[in-house]
Amino acid sequence: MTDYSFETLAIRAGHERSSFQENSEAIFTTSSFIFKSAEEAAARFSGEEKAHFYTRVSNPTVSCFQDRLAALEGGECCVATATGMAAILAVMLGVLKAGDHVVSSRSIFGTSTLLFSNYLKKFGVDFDFVELSDLNAWQTALKPNTRLLFAETPSNPLTEIVDIKALSEIAHANGSLLVIDNVFCTPALQKPLSLGADIVVHSATKYIDGQGRCMGGAVVGDKKIVGEDIFGVLRNGGIAMSPFNAWVFTKGLETLSLRMQAHCNNAQKLAVWLEQQDAVEKVYYPGLANHPQYELAKKQQTGFGGMVSVVIKGGKEKSWNIINKLQMLSITANLGDTKTTITHPATTTHGRLSQDQRDDALISDGLLRISVGLEDVIDIQNDLARGMD
Ligand SMILES: *Cc1c(COP(=O)(O)O)cnc(C)c1O
Fold it and tell me: Please, is 270 exposed, middle or buried when counting C-beta atoms within 10 Å of its C-beta (0-12, 13-18, 19+)?
């Protein structure tokens, strides 16, 4: 289906109908698949014959989701995982060995920082953290044994942006791979593989689901690294996606483009409104002309995204006051939902980091992260205004 456009692929790609000729994708809730004979069983286990035989390894519903997301990201191959963190873990276990070095952005999802610093380091992988948008810092941090570079753009929660194409050139000149966490944009707004990245990781839990129902993740890239090395981690490590969740995500992809446009529209309006409020010290949104990488965002993304972060004057007390006066917005750590969600990163998503790590990542006590949903933006503004006076 390679000559179809994004919207068509999002609705049609990956669907292999069963003998019943169902129009909507079916859910195959079965842990195993039966063989016609001992010979067929042997051929399928050895890989000589490609077919589903055990759902930890592959399943038709999960394959549908994988093939559809691969088509949307423009990648050869996708593997789906139990969560977004499982996707990041699978990349690291599949690509790295003891003695390797990784350069990561310091502005990444808090749990990713802890996975790298507290767990992967134990197995002899060394990590250095640099400022996301500073290409010189990436260049300087490289070593001969740097196997991969890891970045999230736009970053969580401050929406900093890195030039993916420039960073991929830096990585490739050193023989390293570039991994991009594409959770904030999704392929509807940004396609890192087409800009030179080697691997894309996702938390499908966020915009791909879009309605905050299921946990899942995915890795997209080429047939060798993703299809063999990273797939091997799933097959043997057992961090596969469940068929039911894969079905929810498959249906989520069908409306992804429309939803992302609507998230962008609401977020842009909310960011402009927030900037005008007396209680607000600073607004972080790539669609504001004063965002340091506004021009880059315009070039690299087809929309500015649905995440807005805001620093409230008066630190933790005043920002908590806004949260506690809310009557509608959901106080929860999830993002990418039709429902607007609000988080105080310093005491939640980034609460387990040390003060130094938080200072490094510019997670101040007055910072609020808003995942702008699809309610009427006036209602969102009115709810936030309650605690601002
Ligand atoms: C949520 C998130 C993750 C982790 O995904 P889970 O599905 O929660 O495991 C990774 N990266 C980013 C940017 C996220 O927002």
Answer: buried
